[in-house]
Structures are given as C-alpha cells and as structure tokens.
C-alpha cells in the first residue's frame, strides 16, 4: 500500500508540469485579449507560473515525505567546481546531438531544417524576461521534478533503471507538447520527439546523483533557446 501511495505521488508530479501548462495558458488567455492558442506564444512568460505551481506542489510533497529541497538539489560549495566542469562536458556532448536531431526531425516533418517557432513575437520586456529570468526557474523546477524526485523513486519502486528512465523521458516529452498547446499536430509531434536525445540527462543523474550540473546545462540551453526565439 505504501508503494502504491508513493506511486500516485510520483505520477502526480510527472503530470504536474503538463497539467499546469494547459491551465496557465488558459488563465493567461483569460487575463488578456488573446484567445487560448494565441496566448501560447507567451509560454516563456507564463511558464514561470508553471514553475510556481510545481514549487507549491513540491513543498507539499517533500513535507509529506519528510525530505527537504536541499537534499533533493544536493548543492555543495565544495563541489561547485566539479559541477561546473561536469556541466561543460555534458553541454559539449549534448548540444551538437540535440541540434542535429532537431534539424533531422524538422526536415522529416516540415521539409526544412529549421522548425516553425510557436513563441512570440513579444514586447521587449517580455523577450528580455524570457532570456534572463524564465530559464533559471524553469531549469531548477524541471530538473527537480523529473530527475531529483521522480527518477530515483521510480527506480526504487520498479527496481529497474531502464523503466525509470523511459517513464521520466515519456512524461518529460509529453510536457513539451503543451509548450504551447497548439492544434498543429506536426509541431506537437516535433516537440515530443526532440526531447529524445535528452535521455543523456537521466542516465547521467543515475550515475552521478548530481543535479546541479544538469540545472546549469538546462539554464544555458534555455537561454540559448529563448535568444533564438526572440532575437
């Protein structure tokens, strides 16, 4: 029974970011003059509300489980140099793979290497927010939810690294379909498939149990993405 209760908590967290993405796109539309689909172009702005929703949920989960954020993130001043070095290595490996994979999927779906961008255009303040502020909270919460909390607990419940990694990757990819929610099925499929090379991240985490390098990589990757969206 304890494992079943724990599994429901894990499933809730795995789905939380997708659910919040759908909800906050609607809330943003209602609070503006945009319709639901148009509001999706602001997802790097209302994305911070997704992070706050997940943060509140995580507070409830960690208090319920008797753990804390410090133990999940694992930040240590003594390890910061090693964490930065590891982040650099991961970025050097991951960046060309993801760029090549993304271009390939885009070519297969859209007939060109550069996929359509369903983000913006935004006012300058919103574009700057998306480059400077949004990536930080996004990287921390995404890595905390999927890698820091769900991945090791799935491994423990099912006694399988392969299953744990596969489950996390599926729900992580599912989240990207809702960023933003769109009626363009090709674009949704593109968003889902482009997450596949990120399998390097949960594999690394299961070997190292270090979340900080992954957060650093994620922040830099999202900054690069936001710049490519808006500038």
TrEMBL record:
The chain crosses the membrane at residues 7-30, 42-62, 89-110, 122-141, 162-183, 189-206, 211-230. It is an enzyme of class 3 (hydrolase). Keywords: Hydrolase, Membrane, Metalloprotease, Protease, Transmembrane, Transmembrane helix. InterPro entries: Rce1/LyrA-like_dom. Its EC number is 3.4.24.-. GO terms for molecular function: endopeptidase activity; metallopeptidase activity. Pfam families: Rce1-like. Residues 127-223 form the CAAX prenyl protease 2/Lysostaphin resistance protein A-like domain. GO terms for biological process: CAAX-box protein maturation. This is CPBP family intramembrane metalloprotease. It comes from Neobacillus rhizophilus.
């Amino acid at each position: 029974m304890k494992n079943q209760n724990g599994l429901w908590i894990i499933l809730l967290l795995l789905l939380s970011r997708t659910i919040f993405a759908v909800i906050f796109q609607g809330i943003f539309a209602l609070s503006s003059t945009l319709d639901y689909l148009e509001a999706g172009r602001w997802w790097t702005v209302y994305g911070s509300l997704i992070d706050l929703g997940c943060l509140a949920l995580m507070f409830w989960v960690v208090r319920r489980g008797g753990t804390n954020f410090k133990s999940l993130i694992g930040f240590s001043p003594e390890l910061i140099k090693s964490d930065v070095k590891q982040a650099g290595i991961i970025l050097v490996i991951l960046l060309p793979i993801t760029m090549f994979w993304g271009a390939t999927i885009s070519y297969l779906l859209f007939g060109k290497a550069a996929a359509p961008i369903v983000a913006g255009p935004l006012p300058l303040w919103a574009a700057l927010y998306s480059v400077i502020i949004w990536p930080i909270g996004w990287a921390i919460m995404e890595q905390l939810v999927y890698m820091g909390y769900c991945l090791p607990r799935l491994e423990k419940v099912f006694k399988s690294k392969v299953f744990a990694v596969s489950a996390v990757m599926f729900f992580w990819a599912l989240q990207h379909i809702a960023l933003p929610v769109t009626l363009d099925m090709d674009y949704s499929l593109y968003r889902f498939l482009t997450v596949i090379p990120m399998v390097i991240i949960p594999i690394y985490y299961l070997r190292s149990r270090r979340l900080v390098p992954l957060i650093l990589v994620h922040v830099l990757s999202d900054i690069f993405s936001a710049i490519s969206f808006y500038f």
